Model the fold of this input.
Amino acid sequence: MSVSVPHDTIDNCFRLMQNWDSNSKKEMIVRLLHSLEQKADSDFSDCFGAWQDDRTAEEIVEDIYANRRNSSDPESF
Done:
């Protein structure tokens, strides 16, 4: 999944990297080039694992209902 980054964010990153030494800049260039060569087939959902639980669906729903807390008073921070 590709994420579009606003132009001002790119400018801010560039300003930050301007003071880097040459080796650090080259390393960043190499990493960016490698990221361009990678397949863009990955899906955002690949970042997460499958739900793993030994309980049945009914038991999960029962736990959710049992642990609900209804209150009209907002919690203080």
User: Anything to note?
Assistant: The radius of gyration is 23 Å. The mean pLDDT is 83. Residues 69 and 76 are 15 Å apart (CA to CA). The longest helix spans residues 22-37.
